[in-house]
Specification:
With 131 residues, the protein is an alpha+beta fold. It is 25% helix and 39% strand. The protein has 3 helices and 6 strands. It has helices at 16-26, 36-41, 51-66, and strands at residues 6-14, 72-79, 91-103, 106-115, 118-119, 121-129. It starts with 5 loop residues before the first strand and ends with a strand.
């Protein structure tokens, strides 16, 4: 891994069925994640993805990069904008992992999730052991 190198990249399509499945797995049945009428009534533009679902997609990318979950030392993110998931067409989120630093056997990766030109996570960082 070299500083500045993009080590992982993928596009994830999120549809409402994914949100319903995630709600079942996580136990988070907040209607902002599946009921358009409710989401709009509380001021959202439409149904939004669970923040943790978005972070889980970054986690999948991270796993593709490192291969072994035992190599992950830390992984964190803050949510900065909602991923709006319209009924027709869903949402596409562009994910990237870029090497920010390498010191000894630890690499720091900056992770990004972008939807419709907006960063939907901030300060997403992982530290991993370099194989």
């Amino acid at each position: 891994m070299n500083v500045g190198e993009v080590v992982g990249q993928r596009t994830v399509k999120i549809e409402r069925i994914n949100l319903v499945m995630y709600a079942g797995a996580s136990g988070d049945f907040n209607p902002i994640h599946w009921n358009e009428t409710f989401a709009k009534a509380v001021g959202l533009p439409d149904v939004i993805a669970h923040g943790m679902y978005t972070q889980a997609q970054l986690g999948r990318l991270l796993m593709e990069v490192v291969g072994d979950p035992g190599r992950i030392v830390s992984f964190s993110a803050r949510f900065s904008a909602p991923v709006v998931v319209p009924q027709d067409g869903g949402a596409k989120v562009e994910l990237t992992a870029t090497v920010e630093a390498v010191e000894d056997d630890i690499a720091t990766l900056v992770l990004r999730a972008v939807c419709n030109g907006a960063d939907v996570v901030k300060d997403a960082v992982a530290t991993v052991r370099v194989a």
